[in-house]
Structures are given as C-alpha cells and as structure tokens.
Amino acid sequence: MPHSGDTVSFVIRIWLERGQDGGAVWRGHIRHVQTDKERHFRRLEEMCGFMEGLAGAECGAFGEGAGGDGGRGA
Fold first, then answer.
1. Overall domain count for the chain
2. Helix, strand, coil shares of the chain as percentages rounded to 5?
3. Mean pLDDT, range 19-46, rounded to an integer
C-alpha cells in the first residue's frame, strides 16, 4: 500500500459504442501516470483490478478516511 505522501494517479476514459446488435456497449481505457502502463477494459471490475494491482489499495476504498465526503472537503 502506498505511503500517505505517495500519489498514485490514473487517466481513465469511458465511452459508449454500439454493438453489432445495435445495443449499447461501454468501453474504457486506463493509464497509470507514474509508469505509463495501460489497458483497455469492458467491465469496471477490470479497471479496478488494474488500479488495485498498481496502487496496492482496493477500489472500494474511495473516500475512506476522507471524512465521508469522498475527499471533497465539503
């Protein structure tokens, strides 16, 4: 797990495409800023797995320890 002063940053793009049957299909791409490692994904679980592997923290930990406001300081 990163130390409290460490920053772990990701650039995430998510977009909507039409599948072969005309239905909506979500797609995504994520890049780890510090290492330039990247991957495409079709499910949020894949995105979270990528983040967890590089950051050493669970995706479900968003906002924990930030006063319950998601880190917004509100």
1. 1
2. 20, 30, 50
3. 94
